[in-house]
């Protein structure tokens, strides 16, 4: 995607809506600590946006 964006002279941006939420940070800590062993696949689903 980076190469393609460069070829067509576009700015590539990623969505980071939930990367800074406490739940996502905690999941990352658990995965990084190796508590779950080798992670082969992760699937998640956003059910709602909650309160704003």
Brief synopsis:
The protein is mainly α and 52 residues long. 35% of the residues lie in helices and 0% in strands.
Keywords for this entry:
single chain, 2 helices, mainly alpha, 52 residues, extended
How would you describe the overall organization of this protein?
By secondary structure, this protein is mainly alpha-helical. The protein has one domain. 35% of the residues lie in helices and 0% in strands. The protein is built from two helices and no strands. It has helices at 2-7, 22-33. The radius of gyration is 16 Å and the shape is extended.
Topology:
Layout: H1 2-7, H2 22-33
Described by the principal axes of the CA atoms, the overall outline is: extended
Order of helices and strands: HH
Q: How would a textbook summarize the main sheet?
A: none
Strand tally: 0
Separation of the first and last Cα atoms: 32 Å
